[in-house]
Design goal:
Length: 383
């Protein structure tokens, strides 16, 4: 009863009033999907890089300063946006990183995201070893066979996995730690921005098809944010606080192609699957950061190269005044806006397409209903 009241009340509250604690408190009951699998980069990593030979790490102070157990490998002061979406979906615990999986708990999902990871295998290799999207899929196959073992058969695993949500948030590093570093990577000599986006989307779509083959039916595909508006880009280009427009343009091109991919897949798989697109450029632009005082500088003193927080340096006092926690990654406060906008987009602002996560999740029931109806009509036809 009390929890119902909390749920009803918070819907009426303006977004900015939702404090971190509030979101944690309103988690109760059964999650809206039985399982959630997370693929991506540092925007979603929750500890997969901690023991990898890479400089792309965040398991030290002051990362995690606002997270209940301190630094975990999350590249932010508190929660990643997918952590908050996980809470909005009603899960009682965050989805564990693949690196910490010990056999129990995999039925609720696994987080494969790795800081620095890209769609392309060579992305971020100058920072050491990170887990590219292809390798994340390989790790998922390991988990899928463990799930088949637990449930007794591959068929049962498939049926179960059909109900899960698959969240894919990757691609920024294919620009930041690949295309924009011509001294290390040849991609910008080979492709123009249009061709490069096309190549990335093709490789992404092959991975999504592979995921479909092993049971994925419900997908959240997150577009790129405005890469030219990170404090790192602003600093490196000496633009005196304004966004670097030539680094933003490719994000728009990539996102338009990702949105078309969503349309294509929704047509191709209209009978069994649903894909949604999250337009990260519609919110991450410095102009729309209402309520935040600082959108072009990091809260934690950051390294000039790499952009991570300098270990043990004191961060800014009021983290909710800042869009950016370090030179690349948003604060928990900004992640709340992203998460709530992705989950619940009632005004069809264009942030989610063609529907928000809340409706995507309900959609499952609809597809099941359709399958029941189909079965019923088959029954009546054969009787
Ligand atoms: C296994 O992982 C779960 C969830 O992460 C944790 O609660 C549990 O303590 C772990 N068990 C062992 C034996 O490490
Ligand atoms: C940089 O920005 C600051 C604050 O917006 C402004 O006062 C200053 O004149 C700018 N400097 C240059 C060189 O444009
Ligand atoms: C995302 O949103 C921005 C800002 O509203 C818009 O300009 C852009 O066209 C959108 N992108 C896509 C692919 O819909
Ligand atoms: C932190 O900043 C927010 C937003 O500007 C403000 O509402 C809040 O009062 C500040 N908190 C503290 C402790 O200064
Ligand atoms: C519909 O029938 C198929 C095969 O006959 C079966 O696998 C599926 O579980 C049924 N769906 C429902 C919702 O009963």
């Amino acid at each position: 009863m009390e929890s119902m009241m909390i749920n009803n009340t918070w819907l009426l509250l303006p977004i900015l009033f939702l404090s971190a604690n509030y979101l944690i408190q309103c988690v109760n009951g059964k999650p809206q999907v039985p399982c959630l699998f997370i693929f991506g980069d540092s925007l979603s990593d929750s500890g997969n890089n901690n023991n990898l030979p890479t400089s792309s790490k965040a398991n030290y102070n002051p990362y995690g300063i606002d997270f209940p157990i301190g630094p975990t490998g999350r590249f932010t002061n508190g929660r990643n946006s997918i952590d908050i979406i996980t809470q909005l979906l009603g899960f009682e615990k965050f989805i564990p990183p693949f690196a910490n999986i010990n056999g129990s708990g995999i039925l609720k999902g696994v987080n494969y995201a790795s800081g620095g990871a890209g769609i392309r295998a060579e992305t971020s290799m100058t920072m050491g070893f990170v887990i590219s999207l292809g390798l994340q899929l390989k790790n998922h196959r390991v988990i899928v066979s463990q799930i088949a073992g637990k449930l007794g058969s591959v068929d049962k695993a498939q049926q179960y996995l059909n109900k899960c949500l698959y969240y894919v948030n990757i691609g920024s590093n294919d620009y930041i730690n690949n295309y924009y570093l011509p001294q290390y990577y040849p991609t910008s000599h080979i492709y123009n921005t249009e061709q490069y986006a096309e190549v990335l989307i093709q490789e992404l779509s092959l991975n999504l098809l592979a995921l479909h083959e092993i049971g994925a039916r419900k997908y959240v595909l997150v577009g790129l944010g405005l890469l030219g508006c990170t404090p790192n880009a602003i600093y490196l280009h000496g633009t005196n606080g304004s966004c670097v427009e030539e680094e933003n343009a490719p994000a728009y091109i990539y996102n338009a192609k990702l949105k078309s991919l969503v349309d294509n897949f929704n047509n191709k798989f209209s009978l069994d699957s649903k894909f949604i697109f999250i337009n990260s450029t519609s919110e991450s632009d410095g102009q729309s950061s209402d309520g935040f005082l600082v959108s072009n500088a990091p809260c934690c003193p950051s390294r000039l190269v790499g952009g991570g927080c300098i270990p043990d340096e004191k961060p800014c006092y009021n983290r909710s005044d800042y869009v950016f926690w370090d030179d690349f990654h948003p604060t928990d406060a900004w992640n709340q806006l992203i998460a709530i906008g992705s989950y619940d987009d009632p005004y069809s602002s264009g942030y989610t397409y063609p529907m928000d996560i809340k409706h995507l999740v309900e959609q499952e029931t609809k597809m099941e209903l359709e399958s029941i109806n189909e079965n019923t009509s088959q029954l009546s036809a054969s009787s």
